[in-house]
Amino acid sequence: MKKIKLIIFDFGGVLGTDAIFNSVKKLSKTHGISKDEFIAATKSSWHKARINPTDDPIYWKAQEALWGLNRTKILLMMFDETRIYKSMLKLSGSLSKKYRVVILSNHIKSIFGPTVKKYQLNKYFSEIYTSYDLGLAKPDKKIYRKVLKIEQVKPDEVVFIDDLKHNVDAAKELGIQVVHYKNVNDCKKKLKKLL
Q1: Distance in angstroms (rounded) separating the CA atoms of residues 7 and 28
Q2: Shared domain check, 106 and 70
Q3: Are 109 and 178 within one domain?
Q4: What digits encode the pLDDT tens for the residues 63-90?
Q5: Residues 6+ apart with CB under 8 A from 9
Q6: Which of 48, 64, 81 is at the close of a domain?
Q7: pLDDT value, residue 1
Q8: Contact, 76 vs 118, CB < 8 A?
Q9: Taking the CB of residue 2, how many other CB atoms lie within 10 A of it?
Q10: How does 36-48 read in b/e, with b if 16+ C-beta sit within 10 Å?
């Protein structure tokens, strides 16, 4: 195994909460719409908007129709539900002393852009790669290849951390070292074995 040069972190579920699904839990209580109904109503527009920012308004139109709330109210609720895992930021900070540390996140610009600014994520990570900037989304192997090419590293020089098994599996198939994130202590143990 080659020496690790790059560590890639997912955002939602690894570095912070999944603001969208946390908001859905809150809205479901007041609007009587289940998580499954939410996914059915917005999945298509989400998948388009996460790789093409011009489809962002389509996503918000679906959200507004579903909840009967305007985009601003929904966004404010999402930002209110976003929490950064300080223990993971601390871990990424300590790793950045020895490795290049970046984010690779599937997200839509209107949600993640302000999140990056609010929490000053650029201070902690050398680069932030998003599905909307790259025009691709995990688990498509092309997105991992694109990041590797930009970063000028080989798959076995990289560790990828994500909470979703299908994203981890796709990266592993390319020869990338992976950590299927469960919690910070488990992540530290798995990283210790790889680094």
Answers
A1: 36
A2: no
A3: yes
A4: 898 888 899 988 888 888 888 999 999 9
A5: 15, 88, 92, 101, 102, 103, 104, 125, 161
A6: 81
A7: 57
A8: no
A9: 11
A10: eebeebbeebbee
The 10s digit of each residue's pLDDT in 47-62 is: 899 999 888 898 899 8
Instruction: Name the nearest CA neighbour of 42 among 18, 24, 16, 22.
Output: 24
Supply the DSSP string of 91-157, one letter for each residue: HHHHHTTTSEEEEEE---HHHHHHHHHHTTGGGT-SEEEEHHHHT--TT-HHHHHHHHHHHT--GGG
Q: Which two tokens stand for residue 43?
A: 């999945």
CB-based contact 108:62 (threshold 8 Å): no
Alpha carbons 193 and 137: distance in angstroms, whole number: 28
Q: How many domains would you assign to the chain?
A: 2
Residues 101 and 75 in one domain: no
Which of 134, 135, 194 is CA-nearest to residue 168?
194
Domain that holds residue 106: 6-17+83-194
Please list, in sequence order, all residues whose beta carbon lies within 8 angstroms of the beta carbon of residue 1, skipping any fewer than 6 positions away: 156, 177
At position 129, the amino acid (one-letter code) is: Y
Residues 100 and 77 reside in one and the same domain:
no
Do 162 and 70 lie in one domain? The reply is no
Q: Are residues 147 and 70 in the same domain?
A: no
Residues 57 and 148 occupy one common structural domain:
no
In a domain? residue 34: yes
105 beta partners: 130
Asked if 1 contacts 155 with a C-beta cutoff of 8 angstroms, the reply is: no
